[in-house]
Amino acid sequence: MSLSLGLGGGLVLPQPIPREAIRRYGRALRFSGEELADFVEIVACIDDFWVATEQRKQTDAAVRAARGMSRQR
């Protein structure tokens, strides 16, 4: 996802790893059946948490920067 910041540029936020990519990687590690499903679920949960945390950090930083710029005017 990307957010336009007008003349200040933009912000590209991290996106989750596609589940199929995680599944392919799990298969490459020779997981199958329920092990593969568990692997995908665990990695996806960790990734979802990381993405949400990073998006929040970057969005908060962009808001702080925008507020700082508006105060300088």
Note the main sheet.
2 strands, antiparallel
Radius of gyration: 18 Å
Strands, total number = 2
What is the strand content? 5-15%
**Silhouette:** rod-shaped
Approximate helicity band = 55-70%
- Total helical segments: 2
Query: Structural class of the helices, strands and pairings?
Result: mainly alpha
How do the strands of the widest beta sheet line up side by side? 1-2
Low-confidence stretches: none
Oligomerization status of the protein chains: single chain
Q: Helix-strand pattern, N to C?
A: EEHH
Residue-averaged pLDDT: 86
Terminal CA distance reads 29 Å
Topology:
Elements: E1 2-4, E2 10-12, H1 19-28, H2 33-72
Antiparallel strand pairs: 1-2
Helix pairs in contact: 1-2
Question: What do these coordinates show?
Answer:
By secondary structure, this protein is mainly alpha-helical. The chain contains two helices and two strands; from the N terminus they run ββαα. It has helices spanning 19-28, 33-72, and strands at 2-4, 10-12. The chain has a two-stranded antiparallel ribbon. Helix 1 (19-28) crosses helix 2 (33-72). The mean pLDDT is 86.
